[in-house]
Target: Ribose-5-phosphate isomerase A
Amino acid sequence: MSDAYKRVAGERALDYVKDGMVLGLGTGSTVYYTLQKLGRLVQEGLQIKGIPTSKATEVMAKELGIPLTNFREHPVLDITIDGADAVTPKLELVKGGGGALLREKLVAGASKQMIVIVDESKRVDSFDGVSIPVEVVPFAVETTVERIRALGGRPTMRQDGDELFVTDNAHYIVDVTFASVPDVAALHDRLKRLTGVVETGLFPDLASFVIVGSARGVDVVERS
Ligand SMILES: O=C[C@H](O)[C@H](O)[C@H](O)COP(=O)(O)O
Model:
């Protein structure tokens, strides 16, 4: 059922899209449904341009005939539509399950609005024990992992089969859990201060609202 919930949320986000907009195109299995419908709308005449948040999304958008642009031409985007791995009632997000967190954060941060699309399984009360992706440089990665451990995290290097997972930006991902995350922004800041950390998958304040797909249809959740 989760795919049906992803579809309903992913498609609903397009109700907010209008002719002439520049869109941030997120990454993942929920955005998949947004892209499929966006491709159909473009074929029917909708005039938009997109900036993809990953190579995978770029490939899919091109296959679907969605016109693409870049930051040089459009440094400010109207709306980014993207998924998430976990969402709290304050609309704090964990992202990066697909490894695209760095470009996703750059694109969302340059957008007037970020619409997050999830199925209801992504709603959590807190990030206690939730796996948080952290993008790190390969050089001295062992040291960076130990520094993350020293902050109280339980880090695991993300694998891709027998190899380490490599992001679109040629970095690694460390998936980290913390037993208790009382302050999401503070944890992001502590991780970000480590020299080997490029970016974290914690998005404390970027979501404008969240569209949640469930058996009830869709709920639009505002920050509480
Ligand atoms: O790196 C991947 C992204 O942050 C995704 O948006 C996130 O992992 C959610 O993906 P999905 O919609 O496949 O659950």
About this structure: The pocket of ribose-5-phosphate is lined by residues 26-30, 82-85, 95-101, 104 (CB under 6 Å). The mean pLDDT is 97.
